[in-house]
Specification:
7-stranded mixed beta sheet; two-stranded antiparallel sheet
């Protein structure tokens, strides 16, 4: 489980009600190399509430059919969060509506001495007057949205998912957005198969976790080695062993960082700038690695249900600091002008048109 104590304190102080989940993917799904989404030693296997046989996803398992905002790296503090990698870890709201998520975002952004370097750097992106001003019903008007069909929209023709996204594309156009279809994201295969992300993450995890555990006031474990010793008595965790075998930030890790920076610069950033895009539109969480390695923001809103009743979302990703634009886009889709709302999270299926 990962806990952002400064964020939680800030939310409580602003009057927020925090609803904890029964289970999270333990260690944010960074424990096993095999797929155990939603499993936690304390509470067992979490379930998808819409289909108990489907994956609950993760690391925030069970958070299905909600609005989620992944902020620009450092826009919110990671203080108190059990880390994986400081180059990718972010804290963002998951709420019933876009407006709720934006209201939470307004409260939790800003400088934190417990995450000073990242939050100081990202504070330049925080708009004067906050983010609520971008909750505009006509927020889609004039927005340029990119669609990369391969590999993101490779769905069987006529499936519920395919039909849903084509319907959403039509809605985006009707609300004034300009869709640039059939774009190509350079080096997409390299990003997903040969980015050196795992190599860097192993080294970063060991260093960051050792620092986190060392600074705890009370803890039975003080290092990754202590955690591994505990797990050897109880449950195997192969990714921990890989991380423990690393030796700090060596030349291989530095090379991996440079490779990920290159992939972001020559891939996503180039696509966005050359086509003057406001956002890239993708399904579900498929673009997560692209956004993660570059520290880019994204906002996901519910988009429908598949043939098995499992909800899926539509994600809008942008360049660093583009949260205001992404909020306008998400609001425009979820609450079109002169309409009761196209998409509502957490409701009955009739809420989706």
């Amino acid at each position: 489980m990962r806990c952002a104590k400064p964020i939680a304190r800030t939310g409580n102080g602003a009057g927020a009600v925090l609803l904890g989940k029964a289970s999270l993917s333990e260690w944010a799904h960074y424990r096993f190399s095999v797929d155990y989404s939603g499993w936690c030693a304390r509470s067992g296997q979490g379930k998808n509430p819409y289909n108990l046989l489907a994956s609950p996803c993760g690391s925030s398992s069970g958070s299905n059919s909600v609005v989620g905002i992944k902020p620009t790296l450092g826009l919110t503090s990671r203080g108190g969060v059990v880390p994986i990698t400081p180059r990718q870890d972010t804290v963002g709201p998951m709420c019933r509506t876009v407006a709720d998520a934006v209201n939470v975002l307004d409260v939790i952004v800003g400088f934190d001495p417990f995450d000073a370097e990242a939050t100081r750097e990202a504070s330049k992106y925080i708009p004067s007057g906050g983010y609520k001003q971008f909750l505009k019903a006509d927020g889609l008007k004039g927005k340029r949205l990119g669609i990369v069909r391969n590999p993101y929209f490779d769905y069987r023709s006529g499936s519920l998912v395919a039909k849903a996204f084509e319907s959403h594309f039509n809605t985006l156009r009707k609300q004034g957005a300009v869709l640039l279809d059939h774009l190509e994201l350079a080096n997409i295969n390299e990003i997903y198969s040969d980015s050196d992300e795992d190599l860097a993450m192993s080294a970063e995890f060991k260093l960051a976790l050792n620092t986190y555990l060392r600074d705890l006031v009370v803890s039975p474990v003080r290092s990754l080695a202590d955690v591994i010793a505990f797990n050897n008595k109880h449950k195997h965790a192969d990714l921990f062993l890989i991380a423990q075998a690393t030796n700090g930030i060596d030349e291989a890790v530095k090379s991996a960082w440079q490779n990920m920076d290159r992939l972001s610069r020559d891939g996503f950033e180039k696509l966005m700038r050359q086509n003057k895009l406001d956002a890239l539109v993708t399904p579900k969480s498929m673009v997560s690695r692209v956004l993660a390695i570059g520290g880019f923001p994204g906002i996901s809103v519910p988009a429908g249900y598949d043939e098995n009743g499992v909800p899926f979302g539509i994600c809008f990703g942008g360049l660093r600091g583009s949260e205001p634009t992404l909020i306008e886009i998400a609001t425009g889709l979820s609450k079109p002008p002169r309409s009761g709302g196209l998409l509502r999270s957490g409701g009955d299926r009739e809420d989706y048109q």
